[in-house]
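thought: user wants a sequence for this fold. calling inverse folding tool.
action: design(structure=
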């Protein structure tokens, strides 16, 4: 119970209410002491009126008047004349004098606390102003034991009342907090537990309904989080199923392409000059398709094969990429330009580098084709002491803002309608495998440019 929010709230409420009651108790007991002594002054004044009416009082009557006023003697000052109106024997000498006419609140509180802490019975003198302006002052002497006893009795009643009020207030606050705070929090916790049991079930997403603003905001945030997580889990499941299907298709397609490779040997034996010129490119395309299928199978296992680094001429590889894309732009006003130093040697995996460049050039060609206005695709390269820089630029309309947000994220970075969004993700992963980086340098109405930074590392020169 004490470890629950309700239990701790109940205990803290009782403690705070008791502290508040104690803060009220101290001035209250001081006020009670002041009222007690003023009451004795008023009684003494009433008793002195009997003497003013008759100068000679029977000693027994005088003693009865003093006992009724609970004082030992009464002094009344009228017209600058101080008169001892009533008197009796005192058990001891006066120890202190208290003037109630101009006493401040702090003085009254200090005197009250001192009286509660003092156990000895004393005789004190109390001075006050007569009621109804019946004189300049009235002065009495009295014992402190009855005063202290009355103060203790009053204090006990106040503390008991404070305890009852504290418990009742704490109980009401406990009930209200359980209704408006604890119960809604438990409902949120229950929703979270039910959702955790089956996060793919959209029916278990919380429906905000709290009346408290802060809890309502927490429920809205939880709903948004659960919705995004459910969608992510569904997408993950679909991607897993897609990966399995693609792996199966790639496996069968690889077998088909391997058989097609065998037929190319016959084609290469042809005497037709056109066939002789096209056969090597056909063989190269089929070979790359086989490698792509094998790589897709590896991607389905969440891994790309490690690159086999060799030295090769970059300009020849770029020519092969552009030659393949030229066949797709017949009849369109799209030009290809290369700016690569002759026989610049690059140390990388040729097949993987071909895939990266082919992907970038193909994306640029598709962007230009979509506009219908044509344009130019430029592939350039340069090298420094430590790095090869390769850029692919087009004059297209630029990438949409949505595509830029998840440019290298599988199935999310597609800039073309109907695209899978896998191309750039795979290309970026292949470059990371080389220790390099594929990045978007700029995009906009003037065109788009991607950059490949490939480190030379050790052994780049043969």
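)
observation: tool returned 462 residues.
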């Amino acid at each position: 119970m004490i470890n629950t929010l309700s239990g701790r709230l109940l205990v803290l409420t009782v403690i705070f209410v008791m502290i508040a009651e104690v803060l009220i108790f101290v001035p209250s007991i001081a006020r009670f002491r002041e009222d007690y002594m003023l009451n004795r002054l008023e009684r003494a004044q009433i008793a002195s009126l009997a003497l003013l009416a008759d100068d000679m009082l029977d000693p027994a009557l005088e003693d009865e008047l003093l006992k009724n006023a609970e004082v030992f003697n009464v002094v009344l000052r009228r017209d600058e004349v101080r008169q001892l109106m009533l008197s009796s024997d005192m058990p001891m000498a006066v120890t202190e004098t208290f003037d109630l006419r101009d006493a401040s609140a702090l003085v009254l509180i200090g005197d009250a606390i001192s009286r509660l802490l003092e156990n000895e019975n004393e005789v004190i003198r109390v001075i006050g102003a007569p009621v109804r302006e019946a004189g300049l002052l009235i002065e009495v002497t009295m014992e402190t034991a009855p005063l202290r006893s009355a103060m203790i009795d009053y204090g006990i009643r106040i503390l008991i009342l404070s305890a009852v009020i504290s418990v009742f207030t704490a109980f009401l606050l406990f009930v209200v907090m359980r209704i408006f705070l604890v119960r809604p929090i438990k409902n949120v916790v229950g929703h979270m537990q039910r959702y955790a049991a089956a996060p793919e079930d959209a029916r278990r997403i919380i429906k905000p309904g709290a009346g408290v603003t802060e809890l309502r905001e927490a429920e809205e945030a939880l709903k948004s989080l659960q919705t995004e997580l459910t969608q992510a889990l569904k997408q993950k499941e679909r991607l897993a199923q897609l990966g399995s299907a693609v792996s199966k298709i790639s496996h069968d397609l690889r077998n088909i392409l391997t058989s097609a490779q065998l037929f190319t040997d016959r084609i290469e034996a042809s005497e037709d000059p056109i066939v002789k010129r096209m056969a090597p490119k056909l063989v190269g395309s089929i070979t790359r398709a086989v490698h792509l299928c094998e790589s897709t199978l590896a991607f389905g296992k969440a891994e790309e094969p490690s690159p086999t680094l060799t030295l090769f001429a970059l300009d020849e590889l770029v020519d092969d990429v552009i030659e393949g894309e030229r066949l797709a732009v017949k009849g369109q006003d799209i030009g290809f330009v290369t700016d690569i130093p002759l026989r610049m040697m690059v140390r990388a995996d040729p097949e993987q580098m071909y895939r990266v460049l082919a992907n970038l050039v193909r994306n640029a060609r598709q962007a230009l084709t979509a506009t219908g206005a044509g344009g130019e695709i430029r592939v350039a390269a340069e090298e420094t002491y430590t790095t090869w820089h390769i850029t692919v630029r087009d004059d297209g309309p630029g990438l949409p803002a949505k595509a830029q947000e998840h440019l290298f994220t599988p199935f999310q970075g597609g800039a073309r309608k109907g695209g899978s969004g896998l191309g750039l993700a795979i290309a970026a992963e292949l470059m990371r495998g080389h220790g390099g980086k594929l990045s978007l340098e700029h995009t906009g109405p003037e065109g788009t440019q991607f950059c490949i930074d490939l480190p030379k590392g050790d052994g780049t020169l043969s």
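thought: summarizing for user.
answer: Here is the designed sequence. The chain has a mean pLDDT of 79.
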